[in-house]
Write a structure and sequence with these properties.
- The chain is mostly helical.
- It is 72% helix and 0% strand.
- Helix 5 runs parallel beside helix 8.
- The longest helix has 31 residues.
- The protein is elongated and about 55 Å long.
- The two termini are 15 Å apart.
Length: 202
């Protein structure tokens, strides 16, 4: 029942997927970033994740159905995305720990991170829609679980900044981030639902 609900809830989203993924919440390429700031780091990650998602999408479009060989190939691509987001978590943690954050830079960073998570959710939805009969989703379990774990690290870090539990922003600065913690939680929930829609229990 949970599997069916997840698929149904994403039907409209999956229907509008295109080979070139664009973020439903924010166009990361349009975000003005501060050089060497948090948003700058997130933007670099977004660009690479977008490229890899487009590559996966193109492979699926060319094959129509995902057979065993293509599934294995996609797992390798997803692992690249995992590595990129793990590094993003490391880099953002270092900046938050160092302090001296700028509220508008943090806000821009969060918008880009939401876009990254949406890209990842979108590609999982597309994979779920094209798996050939007889191909087990088990091949994706490890990498999808790892992807969720590294996304959660980044999202939890940014939520803690929004709530004033990390980063040292003033009460006035935190007003700039009002509502963003809820948006981060929502995008993480959407990604979890995409995992479930693929058949991966998380």
């Amino acid at each position: 029942m949970l599997f069916s609900n997840a698929i149904a809830s994403f039907a409209a989203f999956a229907a509008c997927l295109t080979p070139v993924f664009s973020a439903p919440v924010a166009d990361a390429s349009s975000v003005i970033v501060r050089r060497d700031g948090m948003a700058d780091v997130a933007q670099s990650c977004y660009n690479e994740v977008e490229t890899k998602c487009n590559e996966i999408s193109a492979k699926i479009d060319a094959a129509v159905d995902i057979d065993v060989d293509l599934a294995a190939d996609i797992v390798v691509d997803l692992q690249v995305i995992v590595n990129l987001i793990v590094q993003l978590g490391v880099d953002l943690t270092a900046k938050v720990t160092a302090g001296g954050l700028v509220a508008l830079d943090v806000k821009a960073c969060i918008e880009v991170v939401i876009a990254i998570v949406n890209l990842c959710a979108a590609i999982l939805i597309k994979i779920a829609a094209h798996i050939a009969v007889g191909v087990s989703v088990d091949v994706f379990v490890s990498v999808v679980v790892a992807l969720l774990a590294c996304i959660r690290v980044v999202v939890d870090l940014l939520i803690s900044v929004c709530l004033g539990n990390a980063g040292g922003l003033s009460v006035i600065d935190l007003e700039v981030l009002v509502g963003l913690a809820a948006q981060l939680t929502a995008c993480l929930t959407a990604f979890v639902n995409a995992c479930i829609g693929l058949g991966v229990s998380v």
